[in-house]
Structures are given as C-alpha cells and as structure tokens.
C-alpha cells in the first residue's frame, strides 16, 4: 500500500465525517447522506484496490487506473460546478425579486399612510 | 450655467438610489425638492440611518432589506415610478451630492426638443476630473462604439440620465451593481434608441466612492459578455 492510497482513504473518511455532520444538522436528508457516503465508500474501495478497475481501464483504452480516475473526477467536478452555478443564479434572481417586491410593497403602503 | 427653480411636470419622477448616504442626503433632497416633489429614494440596505433621513423629507422611500447594488436599486425605483406612480419620464440621479439638481429641467428640455427617448448627462471634461476617470470614460465610450456601433455616448459611467417609459421597456437591465450604467449604454446602442447627451457640471467630493482596477476589468468583461448575449 502506498502513502498516496493511505492519504486518499483518510481524506474519504474525513469527507464521510463531514457528510455525517451535515446530516445531523439536517442540511442533508437521509437519502442524501446515504448517497454521499456511498460515493466516499466507493472512493475508499477504489483507492485501496485499484486493480478492481483494470477491466474498465482496458476497455476504455486508459494506460493506468490513475488516468481513468482523473478523467472521472473532472467529469464529476464539472457537473457539480455547473449545477452549483445555476443554483446560485436561480437563488440570486429569486432573492433579488423578493427584496425588490417587498421594497415596492412597503414603499406603497408607507406612501399611502403619509398622504 | 443656468440656475433656475423651474418646476418639473407631474409625470416626471426622480429616482435616487443610495447606500449609507446619511451624511449628505437631506441636503441633496432639499435641493432636489426645490424643483419637484416627485422623488423616489431607494435605500439599498444601508447600515446607517439613510432611510430614516429620507423619510423625513420624502413620501416615497423604498428600502431594500439587503444591499443588492446600484443596478437593482435603480430598477426597483423605475418599476415603482412607471408601474405604480404612472410616470412617463424618469430622471436618474445620484444621492451623493455630485449632481446639480438645477440641471433637472435641462434633461426634460433635451428629451422634448430632440425627440429623444434617452438623455445622457455627460460630465464636463476638465482638470477637475481625475485623469483615471477621464481615461476610463473614453475607453468605455470607444469600446461600446467599437462593439455595438452607433453614435459614441460620452461619459457612460455618469449616473445622471433621463429616459421615457417606452425606452425603459427596451433597456430594462439585469445588472445588479455598478455595471448598470454600461448595460444601459449597451442596450440603448443595441436597440438603436434615439438619444442625446447634455453637458453637466459635477461636484467632486472627498467621499466619492470611485472604482477599483478590478471593477474596471470586470466592466470590460461585462461589455464583451453583453456583445454576445444582448
């Protein structure tokens, strides 16, 4: 076992701890906690037993398992960033609208009261 | 410069956004009130007593609970003016005492005489204007002219401008922050709206918040983005 594998497994364990904390704080629902924990357990298994992926690596013409993992990691990261971007955009728009509508409604009420 | 207390018509509303402007606000509002009582002040989530100061002087004070930025505040003010108060023309002006309210009637005059839909107030370029501002203003005008065509709009970052309800429906902006002036200029050029500009005097203060180099870079990035998306 290499030092890199140990660090990867420890990192995944830390991330499972983070997931559990967010689960306890109700930031993540039970299915979300299960889904994320499954991802990190899968990460640990692949980090400790990379030969399990040798078949897939050969099928996709990757020279090393590491190369396959990098490509998959980038794909996952891209999806997460893309989804986060749109979520933030949508939230920003909703927040802006809510604040502006509230300002107009209160302004109208106050102006009516002053007249 | 012509200094007069000409009263503005009832269908013209002044939209003034402000963020933490408590120190100068009442002085500015009193000056504007000598020309019209049709003033809408939008407090953009100030942490001082800006809103309370405005309420002492005005009937129409809107308050963003959270600071959204100048663009959002202007949009709130314009929506309120056009949709709730039945305005036909809106004049935007800053609330930091940099704009001379005596020039308000000139905007209206320019709108009616030139049959324009938009009037840009362009600050006089003289030694009083800091070098960086002069350089940036020229760059902004030429960039928009280069990317969108049309006539060159002078002093785009100036916040003193007027437009009709019809123009507003065509230039309704998405920018929340300081990019709003640029977006308005881009949209006016893109929509080929008839516009004119008038030279205005500007009073430079020590409390002028100004822009950072990063803001400037962000603005030029936004212009390129609008060239693709508008």
Q: If you consult CATH, what is the topology of chain B?
A: Spore Coat Polysaccharide Biosynthesis Protein SpsA, Chain A
Distance between the termini of chain B: 38 Å
**Architecture of chain B, according to CATH?**
Alpha-Beta Complex
Helix and strand sequence of chain B = EHEHEHEHEHEHHEH
The CATH superfamily of chain B is Spore Coat Polysaccharide Biosynthesis Protein SpsA, Chain A
Rounded average pLDDT of chain A: 92
CATH class of chain B: Alpha Beta
Number of domains of chain A: 2
SS elements, strand count of chain A: 0
Describe this structure in words.
The complex is a heterodimer of chains A (115) and B (230). Helices cover 84% and strands 0% of the residues of chain A. Chain A has four helices and no strands. Chain A folds into two domains: 1-48; 64-115. Chain A has 115 residues and is mainly α. With 230 residues, chain B is α/β, with parallel strands linked by helices. Chain B has one domain: Spore Coat Polysaccharide Biosynthesis Protein SpsA, Chain A (Alpha-Beta Complex). Helix content of chain B is 43%, strand content 17%. A seven-stranded mixed β-sheet of chain B has the order 3-2-1-4-6-5-7, sandwiched between helices. In chain B, helix 1 runs parallel beside helix 2. The longest helix of chain B has 18 residues, at 131-148. The N and C termini of chain B lie far apart (38 Å). The mean pLDDT of chain B is 89. The chains are: A mainly alpha (115), B alpha/beta (230). At the A-B interface, helix 4 of A face strand 3 and helix 3 of B.
Reconstruct the topology from this structure.
The complex is a heterodimer of chains A (115) and B (230).
Chain A: H1 3-24, H2 30-48, H3 54-59, H4 65-114
Chain B: E1 12-18, H1 22-33, E2 39-44, H2 50-57, E3 60-64, H3 70-84, E4 89-92, H4 104-114, E5 118-123, H5 131-148, E6 161-164, H6 165-171, H7 180-190, E7 195-200, H8 213-229
Parallel strand pairs in B: 1-2, 1-4, 2-3, 5-7
Antiparallel strand pairs in B: 4-6, 5-6
């Amino acid at each position: 076992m290499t030092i890199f594998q140990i660090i990867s497994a420890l990192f995944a364990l830390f991330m499972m701890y983070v997931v559990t904390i967010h689960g306890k704080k109700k930031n993540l629902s039970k299915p979300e906690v299960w889904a994320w924990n499954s991802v990190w357990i899968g990460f640990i298994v692949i980090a400790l037993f990379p030969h399990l992926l040798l078949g897939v690596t050969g099928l996709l013409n990757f020279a090393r398992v590491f190369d396959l993992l990098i490509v998959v990691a980038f794909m996952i990261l891209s999806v997460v960033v893309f989804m986060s971007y749109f979520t933030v955009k949508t939230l920003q728009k909703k927040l802006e609208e809510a604040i502006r509508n509230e300002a107009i409604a209160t302004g109208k009420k106050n102006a009516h009261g002053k007249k | 410069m012509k200094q007069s207390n000409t009263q503005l018509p009832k269908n013209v509303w002044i939209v003034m956004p402000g963020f933490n402007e408590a120190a100068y606000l009442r002085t500015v509002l009193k000056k504007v009130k000598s020309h019209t009582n049709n003033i809408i002040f939008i407090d953009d989530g100030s942490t001082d007593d800006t809103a309370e100061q405005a309420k002492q002087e005005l009937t129409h004070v809107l308050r963003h609970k959270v600071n959204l930025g100048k663009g959002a505040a202007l949009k709130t003010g314009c929506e309120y003016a056009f949709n709730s108060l039945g305005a036909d023309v809106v004049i935007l002006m800053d609330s930091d005492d940099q704009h001379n309210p005596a020039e308000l009637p000139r905007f209206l005059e320019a709108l009616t005489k030139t049959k324009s839909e938009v009037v840009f107030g362009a600050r006089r370029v003289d030694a009083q204007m800091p070098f960086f501002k002069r350089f940036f203003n020229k760059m902004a005008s030429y960039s928009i002219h280069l990317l969108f065509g049309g006539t060159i709009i002078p002093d785009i970052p100036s916040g003193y401008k007027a437009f009709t309800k019809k123009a507003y429906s065509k230039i309704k902006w998405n920018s929340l922050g300081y990019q709003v002036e640029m977006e308005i200029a881009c949209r006016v050029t893109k929509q080929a709206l008839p516009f004119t500009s008038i030279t205005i005097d500007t009073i430079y203060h020590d409390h002028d918040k100004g822009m950072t180099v990063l803001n400037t870079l962000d603005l030029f990035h936004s212009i390129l983005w609008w060239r693709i998306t508008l």
